[in-house]
Amino acid sequence: MSKTTEILNKYTSGEVCLEDTNEALKKAESNLRLDPERNAITAEELAATTVGDTPAQANGWGLMDHGASCMEKVQVVGGHTVNVDMGSELAYVFIGGRKYKLIGTELQTVAE
Fold first, then answer.
1. If we measure between CA atoms, which residue out of 67, 57, 22 comes closest to residue 40?
2. DSSP state of 36
3. Which letter, b or e, does each residue of 37-71 get, where b requires 16 or more Cβ atoms within 10 Å of its Cβ?
4. Of 14, 31, 65, 105, which residue is 20 to 30 A from 3 by alpha carbon distance?
5. Are 104 and 86 in contact (CB under 8 A)?
């Protein structure tokens, strides 16, 4: 698992706050920074976020990496993103301390 993935997993699981996440990304020499206006996951959203043994069990709020220079906050219900469809393009969703591949609207397991 990459250091950036580890840092983002800690943020989406609620282990660390956004400010500490940005500091950890900086120390890891990553160019990525989370925007407090776009990427903040509230305590209520974290409390409502759950993941299970399969991607289909993911529900709640996370961050999507679609290859641009910024992350997008996304909602997931039953392992599918709400209001985001990547079509055939590959993206990744970090939610509940896990990283999933996103194809169309469906979360899929990532082999790392």
1. 22
2. T
3. eebebeeeeeeebebeeebeebbbbbbbbbeeeeb
4. 105
5. yes
Q: Give the span between the Cα atoms of 16 and 13, in whole angstroms.
A: 8
Retrieve residue 89's tokens: 């393009």
pLDDT digits (tens, 9 = 90+) for 48-87: 999 999 999 999 999 999 887 689 999 999 999 999 999 9
- Fill in the DSSP letter of residue 56: G
- In this structure, how many other beta carbons lie within 10 angstroms of the beta carbon of residue 101? 15
Residue entry with tokens 């397991």:
109
Q: Parse the chain into domains and list their residue ranges.
A: 3-109
What are 44's two structure tokens?
Answer: 């209520």
Q: Please state the pTM of the whole predicted model.
A: 0.94
